[in-house]
């Protein structure tokens, strides 16, 4: 058999071997340098240093001091209560010192204390999941079906973790310089972390959308509209962030209305900024009470002395311009808080609840003898009162029912209510107390009935 010869050259192209390029031989490979004993010792020392640095970094990070116990199966929210319970008795209680309101998320009752955030079965109090760090808790909030926990380090309340409310799985985290104490608030879209000198706004993945006030990065100092201001109060809606601040050299508190998510998180965008006017305009007890997309309510304490002026709610437009002043019969307590329902903002004054129309902020009704902030349940508004929980008509504030509640160890502080299914939660005196009718039970909500999570 004849073997085929070499292939014929391709017509129109030069077919030749690249004879000019030398072939690679061992002559072109550099011989390794001779290693001395000093070289070996230096390399070993560097390796040891790297290992030690990694160990130190791990030991001082949150990872080394974190314990996460997640649920085997995600919790399912119970069906909303079809009617009010006929009676309520205590089912369980747990320490809850890191927040001031009864928190729920994805079918669990949430508590925060002693570095731990715990999701509880609302009926039994059994632990569903737990997230613990060996750091003090600055605050806990819930939103988006998630739980946000903020921890204190040597950089202030700087370490923030978000876990799933259903199973405690860690979703994301962030770290940034913050004040030593912060107040967390949510509006359905954003989380606001406000300290006395600095404020941040976070979206649902904890990405910062705005920093305001003191800025630790020197290159961003000039982007802030004012310097050295004390941040007294802040509240937000999905389209407005309102900050009440006291700035050097100014005769009264300043109300600033900002975009919660400007184009650049380091460059605040103001819709308006004005000095408050009238009685209590310079008081450190003034605060932002409620914010909607087109209205702002600010509390001003009034003045004493020979010619006293009554405390008031000043209603402002979306740019911070005053619209109307509503006088109050008594000052708001320092524990005052606000709950947004579908049709109203419910303002706890310290001893009563004032309902403001959600669109106009006009007063709708007032309920007396309140011990704290209410919560909707079965078409009614539940309100903690002495010895009971009152059921109110949401349109008129009229009491239409009363459920006795025993609080033998109640210390007199504000009570925040929450609801999961047929279970009523009371946050009081640094504890979360679950109340229910033992003759009833909860059934889980169907998957199709669960509300969609916002994509922000």
TrEMBL record:
- Please list where the region (Disordered) is annotated: 435-456
Q: Which UniProt keywords apply?
A: Membrane, Transmembrane, Transmembrane helix
Keyword check for Iron: no
* Name of the protein described by the UniProt record: Pyrrolo-quinoline quinone repeat domain-containing protein
Annotated InterPro entries? PQQ_rpt_dom (IPR002372), Quinoprotein_ADH-like_sf (IPR011047), WD40/YVTN_repeat-like_dom_sf (IPR015943)
Where is the Pyrrolo-quinoline quinone repeat domain positioned along the sequence?
A: 284-410
Keyword set includes Oxidoreductase: no
Cite a single Pfam family from the UniProt record.
PQQ_2
| Transmembrane regions listed in the UniProt entry | 40-59
**Classification of source organism:** Bacteria, Bacillati, Actinomycetota, Actinomycetes, Mycobacteriales
* SUPFAM superfamilies listed in its UniProt record: Quinoprotein alcohol dehydrogenase-like
């Amino acid at each position: 058999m004849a073997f085929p010869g070499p292939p014929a050259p391709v017509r129109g192209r030069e077919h030749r071997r690249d004879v000019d390029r030398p072939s690679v031989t061992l002559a072109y490979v550099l011989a390794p340098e001779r290693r001395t004993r000093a070289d070996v010792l230096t390399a070993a020392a560097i390796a040891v240093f790297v290992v030690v640095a990694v160990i130190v970094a791990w030991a001082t990070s949150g990872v080394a001091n974190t314990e996460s116990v997640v649920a085997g199966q995600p919790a399912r929210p119970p069906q909303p209560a079809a009617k009010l319970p006929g009676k309520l008795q205590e089912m369980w209680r747990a320490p809850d010192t890191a927040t001031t309101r009864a928190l729920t998320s994805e079918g669990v009752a949430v508590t925060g204390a002693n570095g731990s955030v715990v999701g509880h079965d609302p009926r039994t109090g059994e632990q569903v999941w737990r997230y613990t760090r060996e750091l003090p808790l600055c605050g806990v909030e819930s939103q988006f079906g998630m739980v946000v926990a903020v921890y204190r380090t040597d950089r202030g309340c700087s370490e923030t973790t978000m876990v799933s409310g259903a199973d405690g799985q860690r979703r994301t985290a962030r770290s940034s310089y913050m004040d030593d104490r912060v107040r967390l608030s949510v509006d359905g879209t954003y989380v606001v972390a406000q300290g006395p000198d600095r404020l941040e706004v976070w979206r649902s993945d904890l990405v910062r959308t705005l920093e305001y006030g003191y800025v630790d990065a020197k290159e961003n100092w000039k982007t802030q509209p004012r310097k050295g201001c004390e941040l007294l109060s802040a509240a937000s809606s999905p389209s407005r962030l309102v900050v009440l601040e006291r700035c050097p050299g100014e005769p009264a508190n300043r109300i600033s209305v900002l975009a919660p998510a400007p184009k650049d998180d380091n460059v605040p965008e103001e819709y308006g900024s004005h000095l408050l006017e009238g009685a209590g305009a310079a008081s450190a007890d003034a605060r932002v009470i409620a914010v909607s997309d087109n209205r702002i309510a600010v509390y001003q304490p009034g003045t004493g002395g020979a010619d006293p002026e009554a405390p008031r709610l000043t209603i402002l437009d979306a740019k911070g311009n005053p619209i109307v002043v509503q006088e109050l019969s008594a000052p708001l307590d320092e524990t005052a808080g606000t709950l947004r329902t579908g049709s109203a903002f419910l303002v706890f004054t310290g001893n009563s609840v004032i309902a403001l129309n959600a669109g106009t902020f006009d007063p709708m009704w007032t309920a007396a003898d309140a011990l704290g902030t209410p919560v909707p349940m079965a078409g009614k508004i539940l309100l903690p009162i002495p010895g009971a929980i009152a059921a109110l008509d949401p349109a008129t504030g009229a009491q239409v029912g009363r459920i006795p509640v025993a609080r033998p160890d109640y210390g007199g502080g504000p009570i925040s209510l929450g609801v999961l299914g047929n279970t009523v939660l009371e946050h009081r005196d640094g504890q979360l107390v679950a109340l229910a009718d033992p003759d009833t039970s909860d059934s889980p909500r169907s998957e199709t009935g669960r509300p969609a999570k916002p994509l922000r």
